Amino acid sequence: MSYNGRQGHVMAFAVETEDPTVAYIQAGPTTDRVKKEITVKEPVIFS
Question: How far apart (Å, rounded) are the C-alpha atoms in residues 47 and 10?
Answer without folding.
Answer: 7
